[in-house]
Write a structure and sequence with these properties.
about 240 residues, 9 strands, 5-stranded antiparallel barrel
């Protein structure tokens, strides 16, 4: 999704004021907004249907550009991961995301000879999107390190050429990967109680999160939810 800052100079739309308005709703003591704001986010997703009805496996990557409004620095994050989507789809293969990211991906895997097609894909305008403030969980520093390591994206949406969706991205410590795997086992071995316990352990590892909403281009007709687990690292930073 292409997530754009909603006019930094507008006090009514600033991440800080949105954070103040949303904090009572979230009800988490010590929650605060980061000085890092999302400038844009481009992603590409490939989904393949499995023999299990309404279940697809997903491969995904994203590039997020952040800006620190206090120190006037920008930084790019790269995420690569996989997951699953649940819901009916018309086609067994689905490609969704931003045209620019698709153009970059095709160039990187050896399709650069199709320069005309790649330029056409890259010229397609980004679709609008929006996001909440990036919230820092209690005790977490307001640092770019709060967004590196790992991330879990949970989205719900519907697609018909264009895909509209809403979801949340959770940034967490890398060792929480093992907690996620153990959570699956616990849910099977101990039922709902085990799942609740492990969900609590995972929540304790969350460093930051943001709600997202917007539009993507999509090749399928579908309806459902998607969850993708990413490894996230910093790729650039400028003063």
């Amino acid at each position: 999704m292409d997530l754009r800052v909603q006019t930094e100079n507008s006090q009514n739309l600033s991440p800080h004021h949105a954070a103040v308005a949303m904090r009572p709703i979230l009800g988490i003591p010590g929650l605060r907004a980061s000085s890092w704001h999302i400038l844009n986010d481009q992603s590409i997703n490939l989904s393949l249907a499995t023999p299990i009805v309404k279940l697809s496996v997903v491969s995904s990557q994203f590039t997020i550009t952040l800006k620190n409004v206090k120190f006037h620095k920008t930084c790019a994050l790269r995420g690569v991961g996989g997951g699953a989507s649940f819901g009916p789809g018309l086609l067994s293969i689905d490609v969704s995301g931003d045209p620019q990211q698709l153009s970059n991906l095709l160039s990187n895997i050896g399709f650069s000879r199709l320069n005309g097609l790649l330029k056409l894909i890259g010229a397609i305008s980004s679709l609008p999107g929006s996001y909440s403030p990036i919230f820092l969980c209690p005790g977490r520093p307001d640092s770019i390190d709060s967004f590196t390591g790992a991330a879990l994206a949970l989205n719900a949406g519907a697609a018909l050429g264009l895909e509209g969706g809403i979801g949340v991205v959770l940034f967490f410590d890398p060792h929480a990967f093992s907690n996620l795997l153990f959570q699956v086992a616990a849910m099977g071995a101990f039922g709902t109680f085990g799942g609740i316990v492990e969900a609590g352990i995972f929540a304790a590892n969350v460093k930051a999160f943001a709600f997202i909403a917007g539009l993507d281009y999509c090749t399928n007709v579908s309806l459902g939810i998607q969850e993708v687990l990413y490894t996230v690292h910093r790729v650039s930073a400028t003063a």
